[in-house]
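hey
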């Protein structure tokens, strides 16, 4: 039986084997861990699904293989005799493609898409490769699509020179970059050597890009270029929320060791507020899907979590149905496993909206880039004491929190976004309504 590199998500095209738990010639049974893999977002152990002997390891520890590739062979039967082949490293993919190699020399669009485009959505069967189709009917190869994204080139403005008018890599190399501006073209389309030439040798340190940083760069560049963002900002008085949070934490049940069973954070209240607001404004609980809008029954809320060298957005499913204590416990678990690279793809994919909180870094307010396929993201700043005018015309100090909602204008219009933000503000300022 072939042991395959598993699919860990629609946008994951390859994985790195970091460890083999079994050696060639060892018996394996269902549930035995065979190897550990690492992608740009997670690391996980892959178990055997059959009984037999691991007769061959084709992809050794430390090597990268595309999703669906055969990484080992298991022969039927415990104790079966079979020739044991030593580990042979896979043929290396050309990782300079689209990065440091001259664009004119990289017309290798016949290569497997998973090896060339880490953001191609790989689905079974793995080898059913084909070009992507643009809205106007033209097609574009995965490599050309990636190069266009890196260079800031609008594919809809190009005429393809490939078979049947397909846009290929050489079309991207020949495309004018003036529309994006000379500085943008230099940053996105120039080779590493050309950019290094602008700086004095020895004045910088090169930091290699890992898979996570490449994914973040590509996805957010794509988001900034293709999603029509607009931004709405409001200030919420969270004085009552802070008082309710302190009272709830003081009253939390204690375990046998006298430790509270939960400890609510302001972020837990914000997650629930956004979840309830999306239920109150259902038209905003949606995402853009190309030729339609997907509107959801439940509020699945992504929460940005900072990791070493990047970030990930685990999702609280059906957040509107969960009490604050459950949201708090689930969020703590997701954060811990995210930082250990142990999240499963189903735990960070999907959702219609997200939250990014930089308040702990004393950031007053900011505008976040929407994380596809989400249609909104709520940026949270630091709470601050601020003088405000009272209803009687006097002056008092209040605990204020800045909220900035980034919206995808294809899904959420201005008035709809304003309604959603006003609902979030109302819930945060009247937090007792989130307890029912």
């Amino acid at each position: 039986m072939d042991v395959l590199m598993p699919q860990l998500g629609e946008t994951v095209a390859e994985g790195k084997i970091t460890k083999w738990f079994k050696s060639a010639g060892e018996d394996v049974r269902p549930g035995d861990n065979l190897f550990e893999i690492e992608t740009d977002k997670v690391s996980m152990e892959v178990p055997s699904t059959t009984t037999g002997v691991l007769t061959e390891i084709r992809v050794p520890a430390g090597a990268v293989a595309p999703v669906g590739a055969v990484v080992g062979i298991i022969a039927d039967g415990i104790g079966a005799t079979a020739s044991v082949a030593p580990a042979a490293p896979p043929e290396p993919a050309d990782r300079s493609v689209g990065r440091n190699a001259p664009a004119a020399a990289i017309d290798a669009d016949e290569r497997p898409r998973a090896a060339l485009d880490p953001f191609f959505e790989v689905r079974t069967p793995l080898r059913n490769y084909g070009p992507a189709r643009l809205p106007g009917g033209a097609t574009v190869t995965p490599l050309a699509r990636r190069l266009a994204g890196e260079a800031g080139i609008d594919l809809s403005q190009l005429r393809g020179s490939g078979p049947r008018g397909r846009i290929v890599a050489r079309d991207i190399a020949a495309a004018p970059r003036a529309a994006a501006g000379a500085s943008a073209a230099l940053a996105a389309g120039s080779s590493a050597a050309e950019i290094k030439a602008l700086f004095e040798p020895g004045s910088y340190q090169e930091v290699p890009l890992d898979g996570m940083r490449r994914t973040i760069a590509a996805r957010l560049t794509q988001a900034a270029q293709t999603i029509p963002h607009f931004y709405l900002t409001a200030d919420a008085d969270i004085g009552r929320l802070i008082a309710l949070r302190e009272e709830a934490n003081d009253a939390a049940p204690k375990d046998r060791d006298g430790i509270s069973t939960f400890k609510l954070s302001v972020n837990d209240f914000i997650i629930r507020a956004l979840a309830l607001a999306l239920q109150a404004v259902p038209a905003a609980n949606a995402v853009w899907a190309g030729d339609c809008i997907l509107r959801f029954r439940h509020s699945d809320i992504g929460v940005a979590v900072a990791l070493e060298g990047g970030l990930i957005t685990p999702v609280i499913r059906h957040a509107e149905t969960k009490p604050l204590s459950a949201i708090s416990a689930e969020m703590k678990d997701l954060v811990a496993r995210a930082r250990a690279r142990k999240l499963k793809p189903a735990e960070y994919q999907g959702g219609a909206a997200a939250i990014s909180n930089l308040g702990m870094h004393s950031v007053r307010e900011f505008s976040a880039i929407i994380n596809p396929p989400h249609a909104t993201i709520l940026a949270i700043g630091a709470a601050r004491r601020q003088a405000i005018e009272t209803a009687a015309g006097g002056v008092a100090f209040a605990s204020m929190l800045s909220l900035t909602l980034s919206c995808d204008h294809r899904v959420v219009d201005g008035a709809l976004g304003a309604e959603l933000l006003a609902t979030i503000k109302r819930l945060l300022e009247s937090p007792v309504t989130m307890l029912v």
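The CA atoms of residues 111 and 143 lie 9 Å apart. The mean pLDDT is 82.
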